[in-house]
Amino acid sequence: MKKMILTSAFLLSSAAFAQVSPNQVCQKIATYNSGNAARCAQVISRGTVDAGAVRVALIIANTSSADAVNALSTTLNKMVDAEAATVCEKIASYNTANAVNCLTTIAGNTYSPFAVNVAKTMANTSSADANAALKNAANAYIHPGAVKTCEKIASYNTQSAIRCIAVIANKDFYNQTEATCLTIANTSSSDAVQCLANVAVVYIPAPVPQDIVISSIELKDRIIVTGK
After folding, report:
1. Nearest 5°: CA angle at 92, between 88 and 96?
2. Which residues contact 86 (CB under 8 A, 6 or more apart)?
3. How far, in Å, CA of 94 to CA of 149, rounded?
4. pLDDT digits over 127-181, tens only?
């Protein structure tokens, strides 16, 4: 029964995503700007646009046909991180030009959901600073404990939050030293960021296990040599 419920939920989710298409953006634009609608159709005829980018473009199309077309164009045939796109969606509701910049920033990059949460908080007050945070977090490892300091800072000082993300990107933290920095963030964003910078160490990814492929001939030779 549980498996059936999960399968049904997945199918409903897939159906919802299937309903979002680049053509919806062009159709919306066509209701008030025929010239940009024609441009829109030409753009989407050249490739694919990820669902996240389409959702952003749909929001932009409510107020700017030109920026909506640019949103589709800048992400054409590029992977768009679905979580990061939610930051662009928030920006699109009040600043269409920076929403396009947001899509340009995230196109082709991957993001930690922790970093996305920080950028999303920043987007409540500054679209430009949210974009800057996304640039600093692109393709970076983000420590789940250290990022809590950045998230707290983002709620009251977006400029310091930009620096915070830059400091912790691809860094590791030992012995829960980042917890002290989080406490400091209650009273000083600059001191909290400096605290993180002082205790951070370079993040070294764990080695990825690799399978060794041996042909049947090589295996036979080894058995003969070892006598096993």
Report:
1. 115
2. 52, 116, 120
3. 27
4. 999 999 999 999 999 999 999 999 999 999 999 999 999 999 999 999 999 999 9
